[in-house]
Amino acid sequence: MFPDADPSESLKGCVILADPSLREPTFRHSVLLLTEHSADQGALGYILNRPLGKTVGDLLFDPQFEELTDIPVFIGGPVSTEHLTFSSLGWSESEDRLQFSTHLSAPQALRNLREGFSVRAFVGYSGWAEGQLESEMERNTWITRDPEKRLLDTESLDTLWNRLLRELSPWHALIADEPDDLSLN
Question: Containing domain of residue 116, as a range?
Answer without folding.
Answer: 15-156
